[in-house]
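no rush on this but wanted to send it before i forget. what follows is a protein written twice so to speak, once as letters and once as structure tokens for the fold. mainly i need to know what kind of three dimensional shape the backbone takes. thanks a lot i owe you, the record is right below.
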Amino acid sequence: MARITIDGSMVEAEPGQRLIYAINRAGIELPQVCYHPQLGPVQTCDTCMVEVDGKLVRACAAVVTDAMRVVTNSPAASAAQRQAFDRVLENHLLYCTVCDNNNGNCTVHNTTKMLQVEHQEIPFKPKPYEVATPTRFTAMTPASACSAAAASRPARTWK
């Protein structure tokens, strides 16, 4: 077992294991919009940025090594997480109170609450084309752009 320090606490983890898994297992809250355990490190959103031994890295892609020092909430890591999430929000309207997916299972909504986002820094840009309407074979949601959200959502059945 590797012994690593996460936000000042000593944590044991398997060497070579994804850092994000060790952080999650330790119960430390970290934004992770595109990460899903079954998909592995997609590395498209950058919301899981942390400092490892003084350098910013993606927690989803970094692997555990013995004696590594991880800081999830340093000013640099927090700024990187917020900036990355602002880029994600460029494709989402922050109208969570009226969204059909506001049921506690929306990664964008939950991350908005975690990062205490009250307004979008980068304005929403609507699609330059008409958005497809759902058919009985597809179910398009605002979160469907995120592969992790789509993978974790149970399949819809149509009658």
